[in-house]
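Work Package 3 (structural annotation) set out to generate three-dimensional models for the target panel prioritized at the project kickoff. During this period the team completed the workflow that converts sequence records into discrete structure tokens, so that structures can be stored uniformly alongside our sequence database. As a representative example, we reproduce one entry of 375 residues exactly as it appears in the project archive.
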Amino acid sequence: MSTKVSILVVGNISESLNLIIDTLTKAGYQVRLADSGALALASVAANPPELILLEIRMPDMDGFELLRRLKGGDFSREIPVLLISAAIEVEERVKGFKFGAADFIPKPVQTEELLLRVQTHLELSQLNIRLESRSVELMHANEHLEMEMMVRLRAEATLLESEEQFRTLVEAAPVSIFIQTNKRFAYVNPATVALFGAATEHELLGKPVIERFHPEFRGLVEARIRRLNKERLAAGAAEELCYKMDGSPLYLEISAVPFIYNGVDSALVFAADITERKTAEESRRKLEQQLLNTQKLESLGVLAGGIAHDFNNILMAVMGNASLALMRLGANSPAVENLQQIEQAADKAAKLAQQMLAYSGKGKFVVEAVDLSQL
């Protein structure tokens, strides 16, 4: 990468922390270390990183307090913070997310998992930045354009006395403008024809406006049209899902004002294409859902591992006592067979516990050849 992504690692110098720093550095990231909360705050203030990896337990200031301060700062509030801990309880997770943590990285650190989580949150952060920037640009552009168009139209309307002069002004506008009369398209400018993908204006003129809207939005649109036509009230900007002439979806931000067209109460409607912004929002939502599913699976693994570990300890006690009892009893004792069955059952249960530990990442699976005819 031409410009290296900056990552701040905060925590006590240790073997696991050195592994994190080495792994990220080899992956091409620019990594810097802060071994205390005070140094971390100063480092962020001087040169904000794009991602922070933060150990929960530190001597001068615990990770939760540092996280709270980072999320309270103007220059660090939007920086994603990943918490690092050897044992992450449910209460700690809730507390971390409450203070603004983006994710947790368990110890011992798995390098592939570390790189995947770091890359995911960097991509999510960049997507948020681009989305917010694009949203602000579109909002300002739309406000500026609407204000400019409204000023132009109102100023020109007082000067222009003929419909032809007014039509020339609207047709030259770069944004979609159309007139709705009796719930139908009475006039569309060229930008509207292009927006809906019509070949000519005649494909829209005279057609019900409601047909261009998704069924879920038609009730709201009907109410807006009624307020415009009957109550003569302006309709503020609203996001609507529409359809082009070929049936493809189109997200629009629509506003309208009451208007008189050919002597009939109508509405002058302004439409801006926000499909790109809505697509970006949906991409972000899917990425966040994917991350949430990963966290749920990880929590399930931690729970299964804890149960299997405790259960395995109990089984060891059962097997040990059964073995001691067999040693003390004679071979002809009637209890020998029962104790042997206890040992066999405990051994099977121990193997099951080992499988649960392997599932949770704290054990391993045994792969061996099996004669299916003997199962």
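Residues 46 and 91 are 33 Å apart (CA to CA).
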